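fwd from M.: "can u put these together and see what the complex looks like"

so here's what she sent:
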Amino acid sequence: MIETKTLREDFPIFSRLVHGKPLVYLDSAATSQKPQSVIQALEDYYRGYNANIHRGIYTIAEEATQAYEGSRHKIAQFIGAQDSATVIFTRNTTEAINLVAYTWGQANVGPGDEIVLTEMEHHSNLIPWIMLAERTGAVLKHIPFDSDGILDMDEARRLITDRTKLVSVVHMSNVLGTINPVRELADLAHAHGALMLVDGAQSVPHLGVTVDEIDCDFLAFSSHKMLGPTGVGALWARREILEAMPPFLGGGEMIAQVSLNHATYNDLPWKFEAGTPNIADAIVWGTAIDYLNQVGMPNVRQHEIELTEYAVDRLGEEVDVQLYGPRDVRKKGGVVAFNLGDVHSHDVAAVLDADAICIRVGHHCCQPLMRKLDVAGTARASFYIYNTREDVDRLVDGLEKVRGIFGTASA
Amino acid sequence: MLNDLYREVILQHYQSPRNRRPLDNPDLEGSAQNPLCGDEITIFASVAEGLLADVAFQARGCSISQASADIMADALRGKTLPEALGAISEFEHLMQDDEPGDVEHPEDLQALRSVRRFPVRVKCALLPWVTLGEAIDRYRADQ
């Protein structure tokens, strides 16, 4: 069990007022808030041992290198990877997916080859493949989902064939909250000799994901959605795949031997980390993981199940609230997408903001998904360890205020 | 603060728009999307003897973009094309410049001006005007 009341004291942002009211932060699917330990660790690095890594022959450079590689080790353990060298630091989930598209994709995907995605992908797991298809003549296929936001697995079995080179799927939808059966999809992909990429941007921070359990070949995720700083993310992949892949960006750090016309490349993981990386944020991501480990990922998940159930129940009682995505909270993460009558979601958010309630509205970087739902956008409340039932109550009260202005009636 | 954004005038235009309707055989037509929020708007106008004889719109969007479209249709109907283009660029100034203009504006436009306090929504208010301006430019180029 999470003692939310005590835990919230670790997050300085909750001590501020917005428009004179305590903050209700319901947008952790966009980015999470940061605990004091994370904020402090950034300062500790810059005040105490700021130095470039891997090259300095002096004490603070060694300290920075150890902290950076130590963080990589923590991240590897967090996702159950045995080999830290298979965790590549990137800027974010988007860059991790692009890395795969540009290097593995360019080397392995040709005209007529197929890449299977779903209709609920974030643009970050859609555009890199559209761009790869434009470069190579590959064909994209999309697994549809039903009215509850559940993937059609019969269709998945039909779409994944011997022509498939890659199946790339979001583990947990940032709009519907749906937790997709990525293990089953990975098994299908492997049965046809294809590889499996999992977009773990939402799942790794909330569900407790291990690469063995989901049996993927690539896993992409970010620090800032899991209590860590912005500006750093990671790609995990199987060692043999990473070794066979061409490098991504060229420059310092990623090389072994360089002459004017020729270069050999560094070992994993540095082969994919050209230039000075985001040292501070990569180190402090490890601090965020320490915090999550202390809370315990099963507790994180349990807390979010309870809170999501409460939110779905309370919002579901309102006749003018349309909910999207699975109703069964075991099939979804802590994300609730909704619309209030025909009030546009931006208007909903503007009214809620006056009460210091932060929700995300619009298309959530999922335009094809929105078209499928036949809406211009939705409102979305998303939860993390620091959210409470009171936050949900304030949201429900805030909606009453929206009705007051826009005149929709609840029964 | 919310009362600034959702003034009575704006809510009236949003909830009972006079100009939200299709127009048969429009002489000019323009569509636009706000990629930020997914809002879609199409503006239609008919032209007779160099005047905007009628202006109408269809849209899927927030209260600000729809009220702005309705107010615009009322404000520009009956104007010559150059007058309409002038009014559109004046409106862009009204929404983007910090200096309060010397000119007195009708109540409807004043109400839209208060949207400036909400920077993310300025784009919503501008969308119909910019869309019509581009449609008029295309129409004039074709003539």
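replying to her w this: Chain B has one domain: 2-142.
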